[in-house]
Write a structure and sequence with these properties.
By secondary structure, the protein is an alpha/beta fold. Helices cover 41% and strands 11% of the residues. It contains 7 helices and 4 strands; from the N terminus they run βααβαααβαβα. The protein has a 4-stranded parallel sheet, sandwiched between helices. Helix 6 links the parallel strand 3 and strand 4. Helix 5 packs across helix 6. The relative contact order is 0.17.
């Protein structure tokens, strides 16, 4: 069996740009730099569900005047996202129990309402996430902590080439 037993959990839209909010895609299909890096190093990818699509659909349907983040913060959506987080934590624990290592959760750009990753200490991927992080990342971190999982969170800050280069360099380590 040739399993490498190393995995990163990646937000849905990094592997499927078609799932992004209209106008937000930065690639035609997927973020190939991340996929290529993982392939070169024998790292598997666990694709996370998209909280925005789960709660609002692909079109991010919402009442006029409400942002995507506004919608994700309503109790019904928060509860749905907490459920998604529990599902992901169950999967992660199954992989860990089978001898795999979860190297990181790769979240989204700094403005993502569902998946942005902001830390309390710069470049400390194990520091607590800030409130301005995406709703899904916040809920996932809470669920991981509840289950005693210390998994680093890193964002792929695609909107800024310099920060994106830093993030990719961190992932390569």
């Amino acid at each position: 069996d040739k399993r490498g037993k190393r995995i990163i959990a990646v937000i849905h839209c990094i592997l499927n740009q078609n799932s992004r909010d209209f106008g937000a895609a930065t690639q035609q299909g997927m973020y190939t730099d991340l996929v290529d890096t993982c392939a070169r190093h024998g790292i598997a990818i666990l694709q996370l569900p998209c909280p925005e699509m789960h709660c609002l659909g692909l079109a991010r349907t919402r009442p006029k005047g409400y942002s995507i983040r506004d919608m994700l913060e309503i109790p019904f959506c928060r509860k749905a996202i907490a459920g998604m987080s529990a599902f992901v934590a169950d999967q992660v624990l199954e992989f860990i129990d089978s001898g795999c290592e979860i190297l990181a959760v790769v979240g989204g750009d700094v403005e993502s309402p569902g998946c942005a990753v902001h830390h309390t200490r710069k470049r400390d991927m194990l520091s607590p996430l800030l409130e301005k992080s995406g709703i899904f990342m916040q809920e996932l971190e809470k669920e991981f902590h509840r289950r005693g999982l210390d998994i680093p969170f890193v964002g792929l800050r695609e909107s800024n080439p310099k920060m994106l280069a830093e993030d990719v360099a961190w992932l390569k380590t």
